[in-house]
Structures are given as structure tokens and as C-alpha cells.
Sequence to fold (335 residues):
Amino acid sequence: MKSIVIEKNGFDGLKLISREAPLPGPRQVLLRVRAVGLNYRDVEIVLGSYHTPFKRPLVPMSDCVGEVMEVGKDVTRVKKGDRAVVAFWERWHDGSFDASVAGAPLGGPSDGVLSEQFLTSEDRLVVVPPEISDIEAASLPCAASTAWNALVTSGGVKPGEVVLVQGTGGVSLFAMQFAEMAGAQVVVTSGSDEKLEKLSTPGILGKVNYRKYPNWSAEVLKLTNGRGVDHVIEVGGPQSFEHSLKSIRPGGQINVIGYLGGVDGGINPLDIFRKQATVRGIPVGSRRMLQELVRAMASTKTKPMIDSVTHWTNAAQALQRLHSGKHFGKVILSF
Fold:
């Protein structure tokens, strides 16, 4: 079988190689990979800028959908011919997150899914219903699980609430869709008027270009008549956190997910105290969360926003598009 590995840092460090196809052992499943979804984490790992260094060569990427080719002894959760997506964490199946038992994520430190075939434990799999295509399914495991955890599982979003999503990356767009599914309204921030114009769903309360309005929290408060939002999807990092705190209502929630704006900056704990804010880190989501969101999207016919689909052997090109920030929605590799 063919695989792509990271041999050295940089997009030019990806290499197509041949490997012997693995055989499933007890409770293992061999997938024929159909599509792979890219996340910004993958870009950082390929470039060598991720906060944790990993040994090379390494097969990258964590998100895929595949067809079950073979099953090992005692497999009960899937059968041959099923389509399934692969959960991000090895052993976080349900309940609260515990890093000591969750196991290794894919694409670093464990080999990822950028191969024609992928061997995994059956415990990591969620069957995909026919209402969701391969391209759509590949976009779900990391970004959609993160948004579902933040708003639905941990956040308990309710009809009539207001959710602030930062930017138009994968997590933010899924959060927007899940908020609207729950009957909540959405305020979107972005540095691009072009991207903001693409968002026209009825659940959007307002849009703010943070480049035009550097004090963007004031604009968010105007949109909510001074009340503030109930939930924030915080992907910017320390520099945007101050505005997130100013944007929430007293007792509001901030879900810390990313640091696209950098890791430098200070946070005054007294500001959290004054707002009585709930602040939580979101470590993607469990297998149960992935299963719940897959069912919800199938039943509501909600479609992920897909930016582009590229043949998997052109992974470097797809990663460069994600790195450029010009994408709108998920970047997918097709097999």
C-alpha cells in the first residue's frame, strides 16, 4: 500500500512511500481510506512548529473516513463493508476527559491516516450513515467534535442564546451550524469581508470585521444591546481573550480551543472574576460526542462547509492552502 510520511520539516518534506499492508489482530479493523480531512494542527506538525515535537518519519493527519475491508477476531462494533470515521483520541470513549487514559492522538505521536489503508482498534470507530458522503464525513472527527463538545456537551447551548464564533475555520463554522441547530443566534468575527459575505444563514445576528474594528468586543455588545453573548468559541489565543471576556454576559462561557493569533499576551484573572465567567479548555471530543454529532447532522441534513477537495497524493498543496488562510470551510483529500 502507499502512504505519505513526513521525513523532514516543511511541505517539501512529505514523501510518498510503499509499505506492507497490515493485517487486523483481535478487535482491530482494517479500513480502505476514502477521504482525509485536514486540520491546522496537521499544518503545524508538518512544518515542525507544533508545540510538541514528534519522531520522523511520521504518517500525518488524524481525520478520515474509510470502508471496512477486514475485521479481526471479536470485532462487534463494525462489519465488513461499513463506512466509518475515526475518533481523534485512542481511548476517550465517553465521560470527562482524562489525559492519563485518553491515549495518543493520530498524526502525532502515533502514525496518522494518510495511507491507502489504515489499521485501528474498533473502539475508535463511528459508523457513518448514508446521508453523509465520504467528503463530508472526513471533515468531522476533530473540528466538529471540538465544536460539539464546546457548545452541546459542555456548553449546553439553548434556544435563544447567542454564540460568538471567531473566524471562519473548521471549528468555528461547525459551531455556527450547531448553534443554529439548537435555536441559538450567532455573531461571527473575521478579518475578511469576503468571508463574512459568504455567511447568510438566518441564525446570524451580526458580523464584525475585527480589522476594521480592532475594539471588536464593543461591536459585539452593540449587536446584543449591551447584554453580551452566552458562549464564545475562542480560537485566537491570549490576544483575543481579553475581547472575549468583554463580549460575554455576566456568567457567560468561553471555550478555549486555539491560538491562531499567537501564544503571547497576558490575562488578568480578575477580569474572569468580575464577569463570573466559565472558562474551559476543549480537548477535541470523545467518541460518543462524534457519534452524537454524526447522528444529528444526518437527521437534520446539515452539510459541512467544504472549501476544496484535492487528490491525496497532492497533500502538500492542500496543506499550503490551509496554511494560507484563504480557505473557507474544510480542506479535504480524496482517494
